[in-house]
Each structure stands twice: as C-alpha cells, then as structure tokens.
Design goal:
Blueprint lengths: L5 E5 L8 H10 L4 E5 L10 H14 L2 E8 L7 H16 L4 E4 L10 H17 L3 E4 L12 H10 L6 E6 H6 L10 E6 L27 H10 L5 E4 L4 H4 L4 H16 L1
Parallel strand pairs: 1-2, 1-8, 2-3, 3-4, 4-5, 5-6, 6-7, 7-8
Helix pairs in contact: 1-2, 2-3, 3-4, 4-5
Length: 267
Amino acid sequence: MSMQPRFGLNHMVCPSFTVSEFLDLSGKLKAQTVEFRNDVGDNSLTDLDTALKAGQQAKELGIRVLSINALYPFNVWNEEREAQTRELAKLAQAANAEGLVCCPLNDGTVVSYEDLKYALTELAKVLKEFDLHGFIEPLGFPISSLRSKRLALQAIDEIGESERFSLVHDTFHHKGAGEDEFFPERTGLVHISGLEDDITFEDMLDGDRVLVGEKDRLSNVEQLRTLLDAGFDGPVSFEPFSEKVWNLQDIEGAVQDSIQYVNKALA
C-alpha cells in the first residue's frame, strides 16, 4: 500500500488571494507546505515586508515554506539573471523559504548544454551565499529549452552540485515531455495538477491544468504511486493554472475533495 502524500499548496491554487489569505486557506486545509509566487499580479511576493510577515504567519500556522516560484529563465545566465536571483533570494530568506523553483526558457529558443551547466554553476554560487536550495523544474512543452529531468541531473552532477539542487517532478510536465523515468531520490518537490479536456499531451497548456479528480488524464495517481513506492516522502504541491479552478466559489472544498480522491485512489 502506498503511503499518503505530504500535501501542500502553491499560490497558483488561488492567485486572487493575498499572501495572507493564501496562508489562511493553507492552514484550514492542513497543508504541510506552501509555495509563494512572484507572478500572481498584485498578490505576488515581491517586497521584504510582505515576505517577513508571510514567514511569521506560516511559522505560527506550523507550515513549512518551500519556495518562491519562480526564477525564470534560470538557464539564461547574465547580469540581469544574477540580479533577479539575488532579489528572489532576499525575499526567500525573509519568508523563511527553503529555496527557489527554477524554470528554463520556454519560447522555442535552444539553450546549449554548456550554457545550462554555466547557469547552474553561477546560480549555485548565489544560492550558497543565501543558504538556499534550488528546485530545478524541466518544462514539458515542445518549445521548452529543458524538457528532460535526466539531462538536468546530468548537468547538476557534472558541476558537482547534487546537494544544492534537486528536481521538481511536475506530473503535467512529466506527461508533456513523454518521460517515463522517475528519479525519486533526486526529487525535492512534486507538483500535481490534472487534465480533463480532450486535448493531446503535446498541445496542452498551463491554462488546461485543473485539480486532480477521477477524470484526470495525466495519470497523477500512478505517477505519485511510483514515486512513493520508490521511497519519495517529500512535499506534493497542488499547482493548477486553470481559470475554472481560480473561479470556484469554494476552493477550500474543491482542494479537500482532490486530496481525498488522491488518498483514496492511492490506498
């Protein structure tokens, strides 16, 4: 029997909520972890005062702050990216976050393997300075410059930074990239979302990502079972991007239903 996942919430569950409201929701749902974001408009975590208050509120609720999501595009390293990383690192530190989620360029541009290694090397220097972890998230879209988890791990290992970086296993991107390899021992974070629309896995976009239920086509339950059975016991974070989810009147009830569905299916 698979163990039950350690569920958490990504702010993308409810981007219309302030950071404080998002934390209140997380507390009501007994979430073990949260991920703040820097791309949810006015509710983004972008200033130190909000970050400090968020870190304190999370502490009072007994919730572990995993990350600020996201550093983009992490694999195109230049002065601008270094400055961006430092700003995010300061916010993460203020919010008591453990690290940054790092996403690759996703516009059809090819980024070389050497550039990937260079970016990881420079990124590691900044993360070390702030005592933060890097959660590397390959994106499964056809236009993504880094689709493969194996390639990401190869680059991380070649620069000798396996302690500083771990993978984000995103069930949506795993399916989109057509991957069949799992790296439970190298996975630091799992993102889950469902797909119910009749669309090909190559054509699906972020806006198609809903909560995980019985109509899910991404094999979330099977992916989670594979990871859990192989020893993964880290955070599993809900990350839907669909306006159908964002517009729900009872997001708390909907997430609770999804948690119950996944736990029952795994058992």
